[in-house]
Amino acid sequence: MTPLLSVSDLRVGFGRDRQANEVVRGVSFDLAEGETLAIVGESGSGKSVTALSINRLIDFGGGRITGGAMKLKRANGSLFDLMTATEPQLTGIRGAEIGMIFQEPMTSLNPVLTIGSQIEESFRLHRGLTGRQATAAAKDALDRVRIPDAARRLKYTPNQLSGGMLQRVMIAMALACNPRLLIADEPTTALDVTVQAQIMALLAELKRETGMSMIFITHDIGLVAGIADKVMVMQNGQAVEQGELNQILDNAQHPYTQHLLQDVPHFTNGSTTRSDGRRDKDASTEPALKVDGLVVRFPLKSSFFSRATGAVHAVDGVDFDLMPGETLAIVGESGSGKSTTARAVLGLVRSTRGSFSVGARKASAEQSALPVQMVFQNPYASLNPRLSIESILAEPVIATGGRVNVAAKARMASLLKRVGLPKNSLERYPHEFSGGQRQRLCIARALMLNPSVVVLDEAVSALDVSVQAKVLELLVDLQSEFGLAYLFISHDMAVVERIAHRIAVIYAGQIVEIGDATSVLSKPRHSYTKKLIAAVPTIDRRHEHFELDTRQVPSLVRPQGFEPAPARWEQFGRDHMARAEA
Amino acid sequence: MRMLRAIFSHGSGRIGGVIVGVYLLVAVLGMLGLTPHNPITQFRVDRLHAPNSAYWMGTDLFGRDVASRLMAGIGQSFTVAFFSVAFATLAGTVLGLAAAWLGRRWDGVVMRIMDVLLAFPAILLALLIVTVAGPGTWTSIVAIGIVYTPIFTRVVRGPALSLKAREFVDAARTFGSSSSYIVTRHLLLNLVAPLTVQVTLALAWSLLTEAGLSFLGLGTQPPAASLGLMLSDSRNLMETAPWLMIFPGLAIMISILGFNLLGDALRDILDPKMRRAPA
Fold first, then answer.
1. Does A381 contact B178 at a Cβ distance shorter than 8 Å?
2. By the CB < 8 Å criterion, does A378 face chain B?
């Protein structure tokens, strides 16, 4: 039987010298009807380019297919040559036969049009429906992706819907014409882990319902287990290994696949947490950072002149302490208040109530440094592109009234060396460094002032998985070397498991569970923690069935003067407690 | 140096660069008085001479050498343009940064004033200011400067607002960097590119506005030469002595073309997204 899609020796080049700048170098695969192929690789591996070549969208991205063959079996059984097809022919294929969803649902939709009109457009274009028919079809499409209250949501504009809802809308649009092949390019990367689980469940269910084939592109090999039949691992534009799911996951042959499966952080339910925790050893030490009853509220005003009618309770009574040399991970989903907590600790956000004390660290006399420093999520945005690395590292020194003298320069050089950057980095500019190197620079900058506490706000989230592992390793080494306390903000449970001694789970502005990392991850007590942990994809859960959950996150907007009820805590073991649930 | 090389490897940048370069040279010569003849000496016997070997561009009604007057006029017009754009850049940058950085009321007040200024057509506003303050070189500099300040304020405020929300500004705050340090090193330094483009384009507009003011007799005062004034003087002699109109007219046109081409080129060169595109 001829496969639905057959790609052989696909080559794609960019720029003027396309032969020299080949990004995809001879990729071949077959995809049968109803089958799901997962393409796994890191950024720059050519996985997205491969996908964009299939529906020839690559032509618009500056790339050119330089060689190979691609044949699609159409619905009527005829073979369609995707290589030689003209643009008008391809327009008929895209959407109708090959649907596609992208990584960022927020930017893939037009912000000024209602989602209803955007879904209707694909029905108008491909099926010639108009007026009421199109509206009805759009409502059905939303029902199909399990968006509750679909008729009303049609009138919403994209900003009124959450990321997960928008990705469902994108899926609804991609499936509008019942394509027989769906290309999903990192469809869940921008989403929270519980939302990711729901989108994965939805895709699996839709696949079952419609019998469509799917090409699923991801950097997370853990995600593959839940959905793929076949896996192709890509590195540097080549497929280094491909085969059946079980064969790849259990019996990987290529060293790169083995590296992805072993060295990269994977979630293991608390069985690989760090064992160098200090909490039990000496109970007498002062905490490096103590946060007491932190409350951050943003007042809501309906207009400039009116008084506040309510407030967004971003952080609602958070307490924790952080010992020197310890990592406390704050995990939660977007909008849970974890970043606001971090920013409040640093004074970037004004806290409404609460107190901080930064423990007395034996700081040498010449250092009048701030004891808390921060490393941000996006290594591309957190370094000023117009300043040399020397100026960037000098900034904290200048800011605290210091001089950039021989001693400061020596410190720059030693820190750069310590974080693993080349010697000549000082005269260079941020754009000359890769994402991982930039994050190392940010770490070096944060350490310039000898802080006792470093806040790491999703510090490795923007990095490629194998770079992530190396930066985590560096962080662990630096921690033991300088006795740093880390406040590690993250949504990624696999990463948290690698670095945390203790974990605080935050939900709707409140800590719902806090305690020893092993204990929290292996025996979660609060229902939200359980849900969060259950949603983490792992390579051990194959074709597991996720429950579709269409509940929305509760609103954090409260009326003026609202105070949450004081928490009741239940203690489990020595260092593990969870908020009692009603 | 790298900038110059980039301009000259860019198609329209090369043309614009050469035009602006030649004009600058002529302007300097004109200001230094290194002209073929004295621009205000009246050669009574040679009145309204057509271009010849002695008077390359002919003479005007008073027997003054048009080529010399053109050089002096370019010098004069460029002086006004440069000073007025410098004024607008400085004022606009300060106001734009203040609006973006201080936010709230400052932002509201500054931007509403700019909106009011922008509501007037450029030449009308300049006329108004000159009429109130009296004609002259310095008043036209200030008037043209004020007219183009709102544009610079907007050009600065927008990107400054987005830079202000960038993580490196947050990072700077966590070190305890002072506001002045953040504004100069993190905001201003990143605004150099858009400002450069804007300055080049504004030079073209202010040349045109200066010519307009002088044409209406409110800019440079006779007997000093300026491009607008020369055009104005040529009006009644258009048919008998067309060279009086053609040369200053062409001079204005080509200079505007040059600055616009250069501005477009700079915009391409300084836009990081365009950097890799073949020129």
1. no
2. yes
Contacts of residues A295-302 at CB distance under 8 Å and 24 or more positions apart, as own/partner, are A295/A351, A295/A352, A295/A353, A295/A354, A296/A337, A296/A340, A296/A341, A296/A344, A296/A349, A296/A350, A296/A351, A296/A352, A297/A352, A300/A557
Residue A470, CA atoms < 13 Å, CB-side half-sphere? 15
Whether residue A442 lies within 8 A of chain B, CB to CB, comes out as yes
| Best CATH choice for the domain A268-361+454-459+486-582 from the list 3.40.50.300, 3.40.309.10, 3.30.360.10, 3.40.190.10 | 3.40.50.300
A404 and chain B in contact, CB less than 8 A: no
Nearest CB to B167: which of A15, A376, A386? A376
Number of domains in chain B: 1
Neighbours of A162 (CB within 10 A): 17
CATH hierarchy code of domain A5-262: 3.40.50.300
**B277, part of any domain:** no
A383 to B168: CB separation less than 8 angstroms, yes or no:
yes
Provide the mean pLDDT of chain B.
86
Residues of A in contact with B170 (CB under 8 A): 343, 348, 374, 376, 382
Asked if the bond preceding B223 is cis, omega within 30° of 0, the reply is yes
Q: Which residues on chain A are in Cβ contact (under 8 Å) with B167?
A: 376-378, 381-382
Q: Taking CB atoms and an 8 Å cutoff, what residues of chain A touch B176?
A: 370, 399-400
> What pLDDT does residue A456 have?
93
Cβ separation B189–A386 shorter than 8 A: yes
A vs B: CB pairs below 8 A: 64
Candidates A38, A87, A51; CA nearest to A223 is: A38
Residue A197 in contact with residue A533, Cβ under 8 Å? no
Starting at the edge strand found earlier in the chain, the sheet holding A372-375 runs A372-375, A453-457, A485-490, A327-331, A502-507, A510-516, A576-579, A569-571
What is the dihedral angle through the alpha carbons of B112, B116, B122, B127, rounded to the nearest 10 degrees? -130
Inter-chain contact A384–B189, Cβ cutoff 8 Å?
yes
Which chain B residues touch A399 with a CB distance below 8 Å?
172, 175-178, 181
pLDDT tens-place string over residues B117-126: 999 888 889 9
The ipTM of this complex is 0.73
Residue B260 included in any domain: yes
Domain residues for the domain of B81 are 2-270
Chain B neighbors of A16, CB-CB under 8 A: 278
Same fold, A5-262 and A268-361+454-459+486-582: yes
CATH number of the domain encompassing residue B239: 1.10.3720.10
Q: Characterize A132-151 residue by residue with b for buried, 16 or more Cβ atoms within 10 angstroms of its Cβ, and e for exposed.
A: eebbebbbebbebbbbeebe
Q: What is the full per-residue pLDDT of chain A (582 aa) written as tens digits?
A: 688 888 988 888 887 776 777 888 889 999 998 899 999 988 878 888 888 888 888 877 778 888 888 888 887 888 888 888 888 888 888 878 888 888 777 777 888 888 888 888 888 877 788 888 888 888 888 887 777 778 888 888 887 777 778 888 888 888 887 888 999 988 887 777 877 888 888 888 888 888 889 999 988 888 888 788 899 999 988 889 999 988 888 888 999 988 888 877 778 777 777 777 656 555 667 788 888 888 888 887 666 566 667 788 888 888 888 888 899 999 988 778 888 888 888 888 888 877 777 765 433 333 344 678 889 888 888 898 888 899 999 998 888 888 888 988 999 999 999 998 888 888 888 888 888 889 999 999 999 888 889 999 888 888 888 888 889 999 999 998 988 999 999 888 888 988 999 999 998 888 999 998 888 998 899 988 988 888 888 777 665 565 666 555 566 777 777 777 777 888 888 888 888 876
| Domain ranges, ordered by start, for chain A | 5-262, 268-361+454-459+486-582
